[in-house]
Specification:
single chain; alpha+beta; twelve-stranded mixed sheet; globular
Length: 285
């Protein structure tokens, strides 16, 4: 309890002493990693094809992001664009990865108004997803550690999520209907490490709401780690809300993604009487 009180006291002090400056700004660099544990039927995919697919997926989710922030707003976007996975593996197999993401993706958050605008480049079309920031019920823990030169404190929260397991759908042209796996509800504990030394209640992606900048996130198999922080850079940052694209609410965008994924599966599915297998992996965006 004393540790938690100390954290709050330090945070209040830093906020009052540092954030009074109207030009307080900073940049944080994050690296993301997503682990996979996927098993395939050896009769449908050999070890070489499986390795190639796993390597493509690994590259797709090893990315570098930049978070530009001031005391009440931030812009989070990909810094380094990696090669996209190839659509064709070999033989009669076709591999389709359906995922949101692109060079024009920009996530703007305003922690003062508790709103966000997520500009998403989805299959060649730009959307502006606008909605309220979801409140996270963080639990402040007593654990501490250093990330670089910054002393960080642990926080956790529990969430329930609807999980559609990676679906390697064997679309057989001889079947009348495609088998569909029902989604499952899983309970997950998300762990964050934040530092009051950077006194803003913000962080990477859609993680925020702690008394200090979030430097590390562990959300199931997703890991986000801060590798560098620059406070008050010489060149003033331009932190603006994106305005390009079709404006939609978050639930509307999810419906659009679902429709697009079905259309893509139909496009790549073998015609009746044809040969081949199609595997789909849906990565939520």
């Amino acid at each position: 309890m004393k540790v938690l009180v100390k954290v709050l006291v330090v945070s209040i002090f830093l906020v009052s002493s540092n954030l009074n400056a109207q030009d307080f700004q900073g940049v944080a660099i994050y690296k993301t990693m997503l682990q996979f544990d996927i098993k395939m039927d050896s009769t449908k995919m050999n070890s070489e094809m499986h390795s190639s697919m796993m390597e493509m997926m690994k590259k797709q989710f090893q990315k570098t992001y930049t978070l530009a922030f001031n005391k009440e707003a931030s812009v989070y976007k990909e810094d380094v664009a990696l090669d996209k996975p190839q659509a064709n593996l070999s033989g009669n197999f076709q591999f389709t990865m359906i995922a949101s993401g692109g060079g024009q993706d920009v996530l703007y958050k305003n922690t003062k108004t508790q709103s966000y605008t997520d500009q998403k480049d989805t299959m060649g079309k730009i959307f502006l997803v606008k909605d309220s920031i979801q409140k996270i019920d963080w639990k402040l823990e007593a654990d501490t550690k250093y990330i670089g030169e910054y002393q960080c404190y642990k926080a956790t929260y529990t969430k329930e999520i609807e999980v559609n397991n990676f679906s390697f759908s064997n679309i057989d042209s001889n079947k009348e209907e495609e088998e569909v796996n029902e989604p499952k509800i899983e309970t997950r504990i998300v762990t964050a490490w934040y530092t009051p030394q950077v006194p803003i209640n913000n962080g990477p992606a859609k993680y925020q709401g702690l008394p200090g900048l979030i430097l590390e996130i562990h959300d199931d198999k997703l890991t986000i780690i801060c590798s560098k922080i620059i406070l008050n850079p010489e060149e003033k940052l331009d932190i603006k809300e994106p305005n390009k694209g079709k404006e939609v609410r978050s639930n509307e965008y999810e419906e659009i993604m679902e429709k697009k994924s079905k259309e893509m599966m139909e496009q790549f599915a073998p015609r009746k009487g044809g040969k081949g297998e199609v595997f789909e992996i849906r990565i939520g965006g």
